[in-house]
Amino acid sequence: MAGCPRLVRCLPGATTTLTLALLALLLPPAAHGETKGFTIDDIMPLDKSNYDKMRPPKKEGKATVVFFHVTVMGIDSINENSMTYAADIFFAQTWKDHRLRLPENMTTEYRLLDLDWLKHLWRPDSFFKNAKQVTFQTMTIPNHYVWLFQDSKILYMVKLTLKLSCAMNFAIYPHDTQECKLQMESLSHTTEELVFEWDTDVPLAVDESIELPQQDIIMNYTSDCTQVYSTGNFTCLEVVFRLKRRLGYYVFHTYIPTCLIVIMSWVSFWIKPEIAPARVTLGVTSLLTLFTQQAKSQASLPPVSYIKTIDIFMSSCTVFVFMALIEYAVVNIILGDGSGEAAKGPAKPEPKPSKATELAIKESRRFLLGEPPKPAGPSPAQIRRGRALMVDRVSRYLFPLSFALLNAVYWFSFRQYL
Length: 418
Ligand SMILES: *[C@@H]1O[C@H](CO)[C@@H](O)[C@H](O)[C@H]1NC(C)=O
Ligand SMILES: *[C@@H]1O[C@H](CO)[C@@H](O)[C@H](O)[C@H]1NC(C)=O
Ligand SMILES: *[C@@H]1O[C@H](CO)[C@@H](O)[C@H](O)[C@H]1NC(C)=O
Hints:
By secondary structure, the chain is α+β, with helices and mostly antiparallel strands. It contains 9 helices and 13 strands. The strands form 2 sheets. Strands 1, 2, 3, 5, 6, 7, 9 and 10 form an 8-stranded mixed sheet that branches. α1 packs antiparallel against α2, α5 packs antiparallel against α6 and α7 packs across α9. The structure holds 2-acetamido-2-deoxy-beta-D-glucopyranose (NAG) (3 copies). It is a multi-pass membrane protein.
């Protein structure tokens, strides 16, 4: 019995205390307003026919204002493929229903109401506009409650797990920043009857400890998204999260490995052009590895029809590896059929006797005519080989330089998104 000690303390004198204590014992506890239970009839208007639970409580003909508060406890499961994310929220709606009677002698600031009573009272018909799935938890008890304040204000609080859709654009993936929303709209009342507003004190609270695997919440704000339909204007409020992708994962799993593959393909320029299997294998392996890498970088994304930033980078790298392979083809062409000749080099077979005699005649004639002996210049095969090696030598500088240039241009143009 909470009322008795206070009553006793208020009155001085031991005798009065004793008499009052006796009085308190005699009185039934129900006589005290604080402990008295009450039913829906205690808050409903006396004439129940006056209360239409389908009609918002429009005081003096003005639209009912419902104040919203959202506490975001968690954001997770951001799925690029299905363009959804999940959020755990506490969703509070506060409105005043002047039609209700207050329970008599309400001493506390608010009272907890029976949730079944909601069936008989008017309540806002808000719905989550971009939700694909809403989960209401019932363990250990259904996760919602209703408070009735002294000024006939009603607070309805519910905990929900939402799966929300979020339109994402991947044009500058993986340097992208996505805006994901949580929209709440009135289902059946136009703005003439019902208006949603953000709580004036704390409209939105976002748990600071939210940790996403790939993104950072760089901004969170509330906004109005009242929509004009042919049937009228419908009140709507939204929470917007701005999610910026962190580059760490992509640097270590896409950019660095891809650059290494491109660099690997240049090793070919240092291998002798005669060793075809080594150079071809190197080029083809690099190309295949790069394709695998490219497929991996797209794995988590929907197959979008526009070009993404990562595509530009990967395609450029593919072109580089491909060009390294083509470079060998060019080297091989320059080398011509003589490649075998050059390879044989010292193991040149002796000229046939007939040819030898021919040569001897030529030499003797030259000697007799006093012609100076021809300088022993390089053979055509050697000239070709020299040219081929030159192509390799130029490539050794040209490829790394242009790749460095590509990287410089790429990272410079996306510096603002880093
Ligand atoms: C409520 O309090 C008023 C005075 O504040 C008193 O007159 C009335 O009897 C009380 N009613 C009940 C049911 O306790
Ligand atoms: C949400 O926004 C508020 C105010 O703009 C800011 O103080 C808070 O740190 C933000 N929360 C997160 C998780 O970014
Ligand atoms: C709906 O909104 C538009 C623009 O905000 C306004 O011009 C129009 O009067 C509104 N209609 C109603 C029925 O409130």
